Amino acid sequence: MEPVNLFDLASKQSQWLAVRQSAVAGNIANANTPGYVANDVEPFEKVLDRTAVHMSATQSGHLGGATEAAYTVKPQEFTGAMMPSKNTVVLENELMKAGEIRRSFELNTAIVKAFHAMMLSAVKG
User: Fold this and answer.
1) Quick check: is 58 in a domain?
2) Model confidence over 86-105: pLDDT tens digits?
3) Boundaries of domain holding 112
């Protein structure tokens, strides 16, 4: 049985959230490192815009092709006052991002759980 598109999308978002969580954790860990530039990942919406949606091949004669989404960590734009150490990490912003990532993981899990329950009820009849 082929994977359902919603499960694939949830998996991609989960991978993106893991990369973002790692970037935010790195920022928090280096909050006192002189000259450290804070990093973040591009929004998931931009990743989805680059990801081509394709039809599943149901017969061998059908054409197909999958594109892998790359999640790149890039330096953030810094708009605040520069500290003497030239560090661009604002700890409050990073902690807010960490909370946002946690809520997104919870929402992702809840959606997958609900969709899984719907599929089970459809299969059981």
Assistant:
1) no
2) 888 999 999 999 999 999 99
3) 5-53+66-124
